[in-house]
Every structure is written in structure tokens, then in C-alpha cells.
Amino acid sequence: MAGETSLAALLRGMQPVLNDGEYVYCTLPPDSAAPAGLNPLGSFREQEGQTLILERADAERAGLGFDYVAAWLTLEVHSALQAVGLTAAVAGALTKAGISCNVVAAWYHDHLFVAHADGPRALEVLRALARDPAGA
């Protein structure tokens, strides 16, 4: 199933959702395996090491350090990986509100990680953007 590529349709249909929980970014040294039993929400391997996105409680149980606690928002629209402008529009609206954002694109949806305290406000900013994309 192909995702949406029209920026106007993506913005109108993004249906942002604030997921429950607290999420953290942890890092492991290069070529090391994640502790047994972990089920990362996401991961990315870089030259310096592997980044894991985990529920805070899982990171704490595994003894992994972190310094950023995030809220996780999902844009429910099925965005195509080749779509142009969605990340820029979302980041621009959040920037105007003074909210930093880390974006992870997956096959079906885009996922945003903002400081945990900013989660509810980010949700409102994104809902406003969906209602009035031109006003962003």
C-alpha cells in the first residue's frame, strides 16, 4: 500500500496522537548487543555506537543511562517515505512554539519525540497545523 505524497493531504490528515509513556534515547558502544529482553521502539546504528529508543522503565531496568525524557507523538496519516515537506512543516510549527523535536520516519507513519513536558502542547500545535496548514 503506497503512502500519501501530497503535502496538503498529509497536513490535513495527519491526526496527531500523543502516546502514553516516557521514552528515552540510550546509546551502546559500537558492535555491542542490546541487553537481553529489551524491545526497542527504534534503533539506529552509527559509527560511534547504536542508539536505542526505549520506554524509560525498560532503560532503567537494563541499567542504561539517558539524559533526555521524551513524549512520543505519532502522525496517523500514512506518509510515503518519498513525500516532500511534511517534516519541514511540522518542525516549523513546533519551532514557532519553541518545542524541539526529533523525527523518526517509519514505513507507515512519522513519529515525533519532544521533551516530555512539551507533549500536550506539541499535540495542540500539530492539531492547529492540521486545521489550518496555511496558517503555519
TrEMBL record:
Any matching Pfam family: ACT_3
InterPro entries from the UniProt entry: ACT-like_dom_sf (IPR045865), CASTOR_ACT_dom (IPR027795), DUF2241 (IPR018717)
SUPFAM superfamilies: ACT-like (SSF55021)
Name used for this protein in its record: ACT domain-containing protein
Domain DUF2241: 2-70
Every CASTOR ACT domain range: 71-127
Species assigned in the record: Pseudomonas triclosanedens
